[in-house]
Amino acid sequence: MSLTLTDITLTYPDGDTRLTALDQISLHVPKGTITAVIGPSGSGKSSLLAVAATLITPDTGTVTIDGTPTTGMTRAQLADLRRNHIGIVFQQPNLLPALTAVEQLQVMSHITGHNPTKSRPRALALLDAVGLAAQAHRHPHQLSGGQRQRVNIARALMNTPTVLLVDEPTSALDHDRGAAVIDLITHLTHHQSTATVLVTHDPTHLTTATQTTTLQDGRITTPMTTTSGRGQDTGL
């Protein structure tokens, strides 16, 4: 249960030429660990997540999830892979205004063809895990920014993904709330045994990452470094 990117190159049209967004990127993210990816705006971090999420097909290279290469999969197969194996935490929660916190999670079960009513106990348990049991029946406008982001994280875990991709989760939060969100992601990574990629611009949030790498102009500019000894601790 891991995520591996091997020699990923991604280019975009740029007039008569092509702009290189990712240049021979390789990453290996074991289960129960966090790989933090840092770098300035425009360095390729969002492109890296899009490729890892199978939302964009790279020009060259291979994305392997749980030992299965995604190369050659049809759109339907990739969509099924995302629904059942990949959780994505966006920068902004993008919650549905008409739904309560628990209903935001139940919708994920509906998308995968399961009965939302039967999934309610899991949705409530996840909200409890992120400290929002008392807010389960509140709508987004009744929640703080930090609470909405925690719903966002719980929603990404609803279908028990093996890969969790987190894009700048603290960009709209103050330092204390941002630190709490990072701690939560760390806890859930170990507890759910996910292979987590955390994209962040804030190096102060890296203390709980298992390993860290830096992107610059689409290239890895620093070797992968171990930043935590927690490893694959899944006993939480």
TrEMBL record:
Record's keyword annotation contains Transmembrane: no
The UniProt record lists the keyword Transport: yes
GO MF term (any one): ATP binding
Domain of life where this protein originates: Bacteria
SMART domains per record: AAA
Keywords for this protein: ATP-binding, Nucleotide-binding, Transport
Name under which the protein is recorded: ABC transporter ATP-binding protein
Gene source species: Actinokineospora soli
